[in-house]
Design goal:
The protein is of the alpha/beta class. Helix content is 30%, strand content 23%. The chain has seven helices and nine strands. The protein has an eight-stranded parallel beta barrel with strand order 1-2-4-5-6-7-8-9, surrounded by six helices. It is globular and about 40 Å long.
């Protein structure tokens, strides 16, 4: 399966978004936008009417919000993939239909405490699963190694599924999630706060053989 390094962008305003996108967009073909409403998680990011520049990159929105349906209705057209936390989704089947009707890809996100058994009825209908290896909401949260088993179990259950991992992904942890079965690796602070973004991305790519 294709392996991808995916920088995660947290931004409080358009200037921060522009600055961080400028740092990463030359080196990858997919960027994750972290959307937070200060309710589902205790932080705010990209919770405004943002503008995305024309670029070769695709964008996925990781919705850490209490009302994903409302966000999708307002802003879903701006991105290529919508990633919804299962924990905030009132009607997963309706959510899948809504996003796919809009011509977008959809994935569900699992917080560390949420078992993959919650998704077994939807795995044939979604494009990817994002497994959180931290408690979500901030750059630099500690990596939870106990999530590796969840990744392995999901890979066995669905061998061709895009499995994305987000949280604490650095040059010291990425090999563990790679071996567990992930093929998409989201990295926030390790990339965005690096003095040399290109070098940070290339280091991660080399480790997973991308």
């Amino acid at each position: 399966m294709n392996k991808k390094i995916v920088p995660a962008i947290i931004a409080k305003n358009q200037n921060e978004l522009n600055e961080r996108l400028l740092k990463v967009k030359k080196y990858v073909d997919l960027v994750q936008l972290d959307v937070m409403d200060n309710k589902f998680v205790p932080n705010t990011s990209l919770f405004f009417d943002f503008f995305l520049p024309k670029t070769k990159c695709q964008f996925e929105a990781h919705l850490m919000v209490q009302d994903p349906e409302d966000w999708i209705e307002k802003y879903g057209y701006k991105v290529d993939t919508v990633l919804v936390h299962y924990e905030s989704c009132n009607n997963p089947k309706k959510m899948i239909e809504q996003v796919k009707t809009d011509g977008k890809k959809i994935g569900f996100v699992l917080n560390p405490e949420t078992p993959i058994s919650k998704l077994t009825g939807f795995l044939n209908d979604i494009d990817q699963v994002l497994i959180m290896t931290v408690n979500p909401g901030f750059y630099g949260s500690p990596f939870l190694s106990e999530m590796l088993q969840k990744i392995s179990d999901l890979r066995i259950l669905k061998p061709r599924l895009d499995i994305e991992v987000d949280g604490g992904i650095t040059n010291k942890t990425i090999s563990f999630v790679d071996k567990a079965g992930a093929n998409m690796f989201v990295s926030g602070s390790y990339i965005v706060k690096s003095d040399n973004v290109e070098e940070a991305i290339n280091t991660l790519k080399k480790i997973v053989g991308d």
